User: What shape does this take?
Amino acid sequence: MSHSSIYGLTYEQLQSWLMEHGEKRFRTEQVWNWLYKKRIDRFEDMNNVNQSTIDLLKENFVLHTMAEEIRQESKDGTIKFLFKLADGNVIETVLMRFNYGLSVCVTTQVGCNIGCSFCASGLLRKSRDLNSGEIVEQIMNVQKHMDERGEEERVSHIVVMGIGEPLDNYKNLMDFLYIVNDDGGLNIGARHITVSTSGLAHKMYEFADDPIQVNLAISLHAPNNELRTQIMKINRAFPIEKLMKAVDYYLEKKNRRITYEYIMLHDVNDHKKEALELAKLIRNHRHLAYVNLIPYNTVDEHIDYQRSSSENIQAFYETLKAEGIQCGVRWENGADIDAACGQLRSKQIKKTKAV
Ligand code: SAH
Ligand code: SF4
Assistant: This one.
């Protein structure tokens, strides 16, 4: 292994690695503590660890693989970070403040191949997956930024809703989840972590079989195949019937509530007809369903799409409620700083290309 991020290893992987390199078992806990509790920036700072172990780690790992390129802070406390990766690619990470705590939205891939017709991230095809270290490092960088502010604020929630399709980068996603969830480290509760997928049904089975108890969100956005295929071409490969079969399996295995994300696109999917159809689609498991209505953030390149009016959003919400569906409207954070995931990045790339 050459200089890869140490944050990419789960506790067990770090333990095996250290022991294979002649270290005692108890070292793992010490190193883990320095990494995730004390959050050191240099291996040399692990002052109860042997110099030889420090040297070994330095020879094989790094603590930084990305650099902060831009940081924008919104009036509502949202902070958007643009990080430059070792290979020059840029990704974005967003910190949001809620009354229940600090939530970070992480990126899992450089670009996205799913190519949903309304999304800024999908404009740029995937150039590669992020490795687990790069996903964890986003959380570490945000947490370290909060540490520097000295207000003892802790990242308590994670949404895997940044650029990329998490279930298309499955192994790295799972390692990431186990690393941030570890109770001797960042200890971010599984129930405080949400993974959002565009509906890769085959991977949802695998996800259901994994014992970790994180939340699942599905980007549904339309209640029938015709409309869904029109706005999300992935629906050809995984049409609604296949998706709902995977949902049944997930619910049977996990018995955990699923969130259905539904972007409100003016005069596309925001009529009463679609609200009724949506209610019908999830009626059978409505006790384990929550619909999140997301007012669309306009993207310059997608001129055919506009945000639904507040009246239409309200009416859609009322229809769902009247049908006994639990739902809410997700009003955005950071409206003044390129809020929608992928927007800051795509703007930055355009700027770079323009010069
Ligand atoms: N690829 C995954 C996770 C990242 S996208 C997925 O699609 O679920 C996270 C959420 O943001 C998805 O529900 C996505 O549909 C939504 N989204 C994408 N572009 C948006 C925009 N311009 N305005 C509002 N929501 C958007
Ligand atoms: Fe990819 Fe999600 Fe954007 Fe679709 S909405 S292009 S799956 S990031």
Q: What stands out?
A: The first helix runs from residue 11 to 20. Residues 118-120, 161, 165, 196-198, 219, 261, 263, 294, 296-297, 299, 340-341 surround S-adenosyl-L-homocysteine (ligand 1) (CB under 6 Å).
